[in-house]
Write a structure and sequence with these properties.
Largest sheet: 7 strands, parallel
CATH superfamily of the largest domain: NAD(P)-binding Rossmann-like Domain
Strand content: 15-25%
CATH architecture of the largest domain: 3-Layer(aba) Sandwich
Distance between the termini: 19 Å
Structural class: alpha/beta
Order of helices and strands: EHEHEHEHEHHEHEHEHEHEHEEH
Strand order of the largest sheet: 8-7-6-9-10-11-12
CATH topology of the largest domain: Rossmann fold
Number of helices: 12
Number of domains: 2
CATH class of the largest domain: Alpha Beta
Length: about 325
């Protein structure tokens, strides 16, 4: 508590408008303090010991040193799906629940993945740039292959990947996937053929990534592995940039083995000037925006608030990522 009121401490370098959250928290008697990376050092002693709940925006580091100072905290709520920026072990030791919102943007991210597939398969950016430069030649960007005849591979077959599969069914593509944690009957129910990781790479004309960033998936896609994909294949990433070794992807694009990459995420965000994958004619890069819609952003803010409120009231959290002893 701070000044006799429950305190929620928002750690956020991404959103500048917190009016929705402030209105919700006010209804439940919370005071709200917002901190950015620039103000973190000065704000930490003022708010960390008194915060009843912390909101950690995706990408805002919430490590063991900071968590150790959260003496009154009941929960760390993550504004999004990914949680690799929060030290779960440190939070568990401190008796703090960590929860995310894993299912708020399934429609948006799956739409984005399919849009990247279509844009690159149909070479829309190349045509667009040609026309902008005064050209008008429908044959200057070949080869373009019939989308219906492509094999689309899904690395990971969780909520979003299943939405992608549903949306691609209407195009008539062949769907394959790899996810060792998903039983065979789930693949069958979506009309998706389960493959080993190695076979997925070999058979995917378009490979779409849908895995969390963990020690096992960090730089999972290396030069040698991506080189096993069919020549002219396309890579789509809407999960986490660190899954791909970016220098290796650039090399395969330069060599012409991969025809293109649609990337909504990068290893470092925002990227530094001169990033090797930005500005290439073979890449279409968006600013980690696949989750964005008017509806999804509102839902995310509301549900993130609910995590903090529920934890403060001692309620069970639907998507708790850890089990602290409390």
């Amino acid at each position: 508590m701070l000044n006799g009121k429950k305190l929620v401490w928002i750690l956020d370098d991404e959103w500048t408008d917190h009016s929705v959250e402030k209105a919700i928290y006010a209804q439940h008697g919370f005071e709200v303090k917002v901190t950015t990376s620039e103000t973190l050092d000065g704000d930490t002693p003022l708010y960390a010991p008194y915060a009843d709940g912390v909101v950690a925006q995706v990408g805002f580091p919430c490590g063991a040193e900071l968590i150790a100072k959260l003496d009154a905290c009941k929960s760390i709520a993550i504004s999004g799906v990914g949680f690799n920026h929060v030290d779960l072990e440190a939070a568990t030791r401190k008796g703090i629940f960590v929860a995310n919102v894993p299912d708020y943007c399934m429609e948006e991210v799956s739409d984005h993945a399919v849009a990247l597939m279509l844009a690159l398969s149909k070479r829309l950016m190349a045509f667009h740039e040609q026309v902008r430069a005064g050209g008008w030649d429908p044959l200057d960007t070949l080869p373009i292959y019939r989308f219906k005849d492509r094999t689309v591979g899904l690395l990971g077959f969780g909520r979003i990947a299943r939405k992608v599969a549903e949306k691609l069914k209407g195009f008539g593509v062949r769907l394959v996937a790899h996810d060792e944690y998903v039983p065979p009957d789930v693949f069958a129910s979506y009309g998706v053929a389960p493959l080993s990781f190695e076979e997925l790479l070999k058979q995917s004309d378009i490979l779409s990534l849908h895995v969390p960033l963990t020690p096992e998936t960090t730089e999972l896609l290396t030069y040698d592995r991506m080189k096993t994909m069919p020549r002219g294949a396309i890579l789509i990433n809407t999960c986490r940039g660190g899954v791909i070794r970016e220098a290796d992807l650039r090399r395969l694009l330069d060599e012409g083995h991969l025809a293109g990459a649609g990337l909504d995420v990068l290893t470092e965000e925002p990227p530094k000037p001169g990033h090797p994958l930005i500005g290439l004619p073979q890449t279409l890069v968006t600013p980690h925006s696949s989750y964005v819609s008017v509806e999804s952003v509102r839902e995310l803010k509301e549900r993130t608030c609910q995590i903090v409120i529920d934890a403060a009231e001692g309620k069970t959290l639907a998507y708790s990522l850890n089990k602290p002893a409390v």
